[in-house]
Amino acid sequence: METWLFLALILIIAMFGKNSSLVIATLVVMLIKALPFTQKWLPVIQNKGINWGVTIISVAILIPIATGEITFHDLMRVFRTPAGWIAIAMGIAVAILSRLGVNQLSASPQVTVALVFGTIMGVVLFKGIAAGPVIASGLTYCIVTMLNLHF
């Protein structure tokens, strides 16, 4: 019963914060929880979900290459600007930090409670988005803007 109340509270907060991604995610988790054999599927989703999410984000990132919006010429141009190098560095930094974060979650699962709470607060109260590549882009934006650089 406590888990349902906790999920309902998250759903209400997400709706109040008008965050459709968190609303959908919470409803999906509630639906999965209501299905039979939940005890088998929830741990699988918990263990593999981050990798599935990263795969979906990677597909979305690669689509502009497939459609021709981003070309090899664009990639070469990135190497000619300080802003491009900052973006590359932020992508590398976030990838490394993400790997360390996944390792941390495996070693200390209790930190998940604080991370989930912080993520919910950031998403709902500050209109944030829970996604690694977007973090790299945000860091790049901050540094490039602060240094008044352009791509």
UniProtKB/TrEMBL annotation:
GO terms for cellular component: plasma membrane. It is a multi-pass membrane protein. Keywords: Cell membrane, Membrane, Transmembrane, Transmembrane helix. It comes from the Bacteria. Its main location: membrane. The chain crosses the membrane at residues 49-72, 84-102, 114-144. It is found in: Cell membrane. The keyword Cell membrane applies. InterPro entries: UPF0756_TM. The keyword Metal-binding does not apply. Belongs to the UPF0756 family. PANTHER family: UPF0756 MEMBRANE PROTEIN YEAL. This is UPF0756 membrane protein HMPREF0501_01069. It comes from Limosilactobacillus coleohominis 101-4-CHN.
